[in-house]
């Protein structure tokens, strides 16, 4: 019999979570560091790549803070806005490829690329139909397998400059 939490959580081919366990690719993730890394994989695949807002709400702590928000809403709604109203509208076939993950304590650092075809306006730059690749390095602090804090660095400004030059 499934618990209420397990029944209401979003499905995923990458990571299956309930309040008490995480499965990665069908195998139980044994250590707290593996569990934290699995949460970050799930967030990247389901929330960013697939646009699953229910998963975002399930994986975010209520006191989440985005330290990279730069004057924007630094809570969960600000992050959701960035994914669904900035990136998803500008980049069709949005993809996230995770290259490296390092976990220590309650933090996970990930090197990844976010890519897609530039078919909509991206932060004031009209569509070019070019493939866009944004390199990102994230640090996520988790509490109880939920995003608590986020710091990120990316090359978005140089990508925008390149798009403007065409």
Topology of this structure?
Layout lengths: L3 H5 L6 E3 L4 E3 L2 E2 L3 H18 L3 H7 E7 L9 H15 E14 L2 E12 L12 E13 L2 E9 L1 H9 L2
Parallel strand pairs: 4-8
Antiparallel strand pairs: 1-2, 2-3, 5-6, 6-7, 7-8
Helix pairs in contact: 2-3
> Helicity, in percent?
25-40%
Number of helices: 5
Strand content: 35-45%
Large-scale geometry: globular
Query: What radius of gyration results from the CA coordinates?
Result: 16 Å
Please tag this protein with its features:
single chain; alpha+beta; five-stranded mixed beta sheet; 5 helices; 33% helix; globular
Description:
The protein is an alpha+beta fold and 166 residues long. It is 33% helix and 38% strand. It is built from five helices and eight strands, in the order H-E-E-E-H-H-E-H-E-E-E-E-H. It has helices spanning 4-8, 32-49, 53-59, 76-90, 156-164, and strands spanning 15-17, 22-24, 27-28, 60-66, 91-104, 107-118, 131-143, 146-154. A five-stranded mixed β-sheet has the order 4-8-7-6-5. A hairpin with a 2-residue loop joins strand 5 and strand 6 (107-118). Helix 2 runs antiparallel to helix 3. The radius of gyration is 16 Å and the shape is globular. The protein starts with a helix and ends with a helix. 26% of the residues are buried. Residues 1-14 have low confidence and may be disordered.
């Amino acid at each position: 019999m499934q618990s209420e939490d397990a029944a209401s959580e979003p499905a995923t081919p990458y990571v299956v979570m309930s309040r008490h366990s995480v499965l990665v690719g069908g195998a139980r993730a044994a250590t707290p560091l593996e569990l934290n890394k699995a949460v970050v994989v799930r967030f990247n695949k389901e929330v960013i790549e697939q646009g699953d807002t229910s998963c975002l709400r399930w994986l975010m702590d209520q006191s989440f803070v985005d330290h990279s928000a730069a004057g924007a809403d630094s809570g969960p709604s600000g992050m959701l806005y960035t994914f669904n109203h900035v990136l998803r509208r500008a980049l069709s076939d949005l993809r996230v490829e995770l290259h490296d993950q390092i976990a220590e304590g309650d933090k996970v650092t990930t090197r990844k690329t976010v890519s897609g075809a530039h078919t909509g306006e991206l932060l004031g730059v009209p569509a070019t139909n070019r493939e866009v690749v944004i390199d990102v390095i994230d640090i996520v602090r988790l509490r109880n397998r939920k995003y608590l804090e986020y710091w990120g660095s990316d090359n978005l400004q140089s990508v925008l400059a390149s798009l403007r030059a065409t």
